[in-house]
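Task card 7
Instruction: Convert sequence to C-alpha cells.
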Amino acid sequence: MKGDIGAYFILFFQGSGIFEGKLFYCETIHGWVFPYLYSFSTVQIFSTFEKNLFMQYWLVKSEPVKYSWAKFNEDGRTFWDGVRNYQARNNLREMKEGDLVLFYHSNEGKEVVGIAKVAKEFYQDPSTTDPNWVVVDLVPVESLKIPVSLEKIKADERLKDIHLVRQGRLSVMGLKREEFDRIVEMGTNGI
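Output:
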C-alpha cells in the first residue's frame, strides 16, 4: 500500500445477488475503488493478507568466496549459520516464515544481488552446541537484474538511514519496507 493507494477486503453476504458469498480485494486509488474477485477461500485470503500485513524485511551478508548467491541458488535452500554477534542473532530470532531477505555480497563486490525468503524460523545452530546461537532456513526467490552496489545505496537519499550504511559490520539486519522496495526498484530499473 503506497502513497494514495489503500487496500481492503469486502465479503458480500446475503442479499447481494450474484455477489453473495464472494470475496473481493479492493484497492483505492485517489478515491476510486477497484475490486478484484478472488475465487479461493476466505481463509486463504485473510491468511495471505495477514502475512503481508505483518511481513518483515531483512538483509543478510555473505562473502562470495565463502557462500555466494550463485552457490545459494545451486543449493536451493540453506540454513544461515555462523552468526556470532548478539544483535545479528537477535535479528535471526525475529525472522518469521515468509519474510523477505536481501542477499548482499560483502568484501568482494559489496552489492545486493538477490532476494531470498525465510523458509523456517530460528532453531539451534547445528554448527555449535552453545544454545545461544541460532539459524534460520532461507530459500532463493530471484536474482536482481542489476546488482545494487553499496556506493549506489549510500548515494540514494531515501536510503541514508539504512543499517547497511549505519552499522556496516552487522551481518543480519532489519530493513524498513520502503528501504527493501527501493533497493529492489534500483535492482530492477538500474536507478
